[in-house]
Design a protein that fits this description.
- Helix content is 37%, strand content 22%.
- With 295 residues, it is an alpha/beta fold.
- The chain has 2 domains: 47 residues, no CATH class; 235 residues, Rossmann fold.
- It is built from 10 helices and 8 strands.
């Protein structure tokens, strides 16, 4: 399928698909409301297919790249769902490396997130991307089924699973015991929550368009934070002023970048919301931030 960009769609249609992806409306409702955009020979089914992720576009780093080692690991999580499985990507060369936890969107450990882990391994980090859907059978192979499975997971236990994964990653013998976390959408919100939960055990956090932690929890944060937002993301952006005020009041180290005119999910290179220029800039800032605080 031909690759399209956000500018090929009306903002109202992109917002409607955003509601569908986050479970606010079901597929039938999306198709019904999107029908009025089916003009000029386009069918609503074609519109829907063009907005869905195409994971053939996601691979920037092949899994068999000789510079890295990849595989799956299962981490015990006694306070959570018992265990959590994830994708581990490491530099091939021996030695100790700083570690980064990679946290997916609200659809589980899909190929895009695995590729992000490999990108970090190429940048000389040990990256572990846990699958929050482990307790319900793991990422099911499509985003629709993933979103459906996501709603079945016990949220509190899943948070404990990510905490367990973070502690396991930091404690690894091939780690320098410096720990970062990066997350997208749901995962961005989880980075903020982990900053609260882990305190000084987290050394740096990067949240892409993620829900903010509560102002009352900000005093518990120790890690420097890099907060990256999309301009066209009203629901998430509503929480920025209160969060920033609390971070300032508590003298926390943080940076905020707003990517004006960009869509929620602009870093995800499998959908039309992807913006190459913004994604590359945000990623370079991410690596710079981790290099500063984890090396």
């Amino acid at each position: 399928m031909e690759r399209k960009s956000a500018s090929d769609y009306p903002q109202e249609l992109l917002d409607l698909f955003h509601e569908y992806q986050h479970g606010d409306i079901d597929r039938r409702t999306f198709l019904d409301r999107a029908a009025r955009f089916a003009v000029g020979g386009l069918t609503v089914a074609t519109i829907f297919e063009s907005l869905r992720p195409n994971y053939a576009w996601a691979q920037q780093v092949p899994a068999d790249d000789k510079r890295i080692k990849v595989g799956y690991e299962t981490v015990p999580s006694p306070e959570g769902n018992g265990s959590i499985k994830g994708y581990l990507a490491r530099p091939s060369k021996n030695g100790k490396h700083a570690a980064v936890l990679v946290i997916h969107e609200n659809r589980g450990l899909n190929p895009y997130i695995e590729d992000v882990a490999r990108r970090l391994a190429l940048a000389n980090f040990i990256a572990f991307a846990p699958d929050g859907l482990t307790s319900v059978g793991g990422y099911p192979g499509s985003d629709e089924k993933g979103a459906e499975a996501f709603r079945k997971v016990d949220g509190k236990k899943m948070t404990e699973d990510f905490v367990a994964a973070a502690k396991w990653l930091k404690a690894r013998s091939d780690s320098t015991h410096k720990l970062g976390a990066v997350g997208f959408c749901f995962g961005g919100g989880m980075v903020n929550q982990l900053a609260v939960r882990l305190g000084s055990d987290l050394n740096a956090g990067v949240a892409f368009y993620g829900r903010q932690a509560g102002a009352d929890d900000v005093p518990k944060i120790s890690a420097p934070l890099l907060l990256q937002y999309a301009g066209n993301d009203q629901r998430i952006n509503e929480g920025i002023p209160a969060y920033e005020a609390a971070l300032k009041a508590n003298k926390k180290v943080y940076q905020v970048y707003m990517y004006d005119g960009k869509q929620h999910g602009f870093h995800n290179d499998t959908t039309p919301r992807y913006d190459e220029e913004a994604a590359k800039l945000a990623w370079s800032r991410t690596l710079e931030f981790f290099n500063k605080y984890l090396r």
